[in-house]
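Feature request, filed as a ticket because there's no other form

It would be nice if the structure record came with a short human-readable summary line next to the tokens. Right now we just get the raw output. Example of a typical job, pasted below so the devs can see what we mean:
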Amino acid sequence: MNSKVRFVSSQKTEFFPILRKRVDQYFRDHNLSQKGNEKVILKTIVMFALYFVPYFMIISGAFPLGVMWLLALVMGLGIAGIGLAVMHDANHGTLSDHAWINRFFGYSLNVIGGNAFTWKVQHNVLHHTYTNIHEMDEDLDAGIIVRLSPHAPHYYLHRYQHIYAFMLYGLVTLSWVLFKDFIKITRYNKMGLTAKQRANASVEVGVIILTKLLYVAYMVVLPLVLLDITWWQFLIGFMTMHLTAGLILSLVFQTAHVVEETLHPQVNAEGCIENQWAIHQLVTTANFSRKNRLLSWYVGGLNYQVEHHLFPNINHIHYRPLSEIVKATAAEFDLPYHDQPTFLKAIRSHARLLKELGKPVPAVASVRPKAEAVMAD
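Raw output as currently delivered:
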């Protein structure tokens, strides 16, 4: 991985400086903090309740198996809700004005089976910097099973990925628990990324091991000890929880970047991306369902991915009004603003692109002349 990739453009544009001024002016005019407020506090309580209330109801042993299965499904909604609406903001430093609160809730990922440190390196450092760049944005790395970039190697099994990919998406959170974090911490240590984050590699490995042991203790051992259920009955509930969470999380993030409208730029021979960073975010990112307030509330405003990628240090509760500023400014500079009207249409677009990427030579860029023109400038 080339960590010295630069964003350059032969034609300079004042798009982002002007947009930045307009966004800053919005907060001054409304006397608002760019971080979270009381709405975020309430949401945090609700998301943790979605996870822990069903858990303790199950542990009580007071409910029949069918009800426990439904409670496990609700826990899956809670995992996704914590990840999207609490942990995500906390690890971007936007949940609160207080750094210690962000650190505390950032570790909520460890509570639900993942690891905050490896997530921050993958997401904050690699994904947000090198969005949709093959072999640099690790969100595009699904191994050889799913091809998410037109620049990734093509294998015969990809011809059917638009059929099987959605089933595999449900395994995302389970991979956190089992192996993903161990692979990533090893990789980041070798790449020097752990040191660049001023973290101690041994400490981070220790945190991964300890928190996963605690997760297994309360999520696996305790139910099997306290409940009168068989191992396979437990496994059904456990898998239901993770499949629910994994599918939701995957669909939210895949529909933000791996859809028909977005581009997958390549690094040129000089080690550069031929565009300014902010415009790169516009052409590689897409919004969906901006008018659906309930969905936006649950997914932590991540249906406003364009705004999030341009302003990752601003809390998601502000994205709705900011989206109008971004959209208008993009239009003023004749830049694309990708925006699917509904979540379902965004999912369909992702499915169509998966099918296209499953072909040996996908023609994924031919229908986006405006975005291509922007990349050529």
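Something like this underneath would help us a lot:
Residues 363-377 have pLDDT under 50 and may be disordered.
Residues 6-35+259-376 form one domain.
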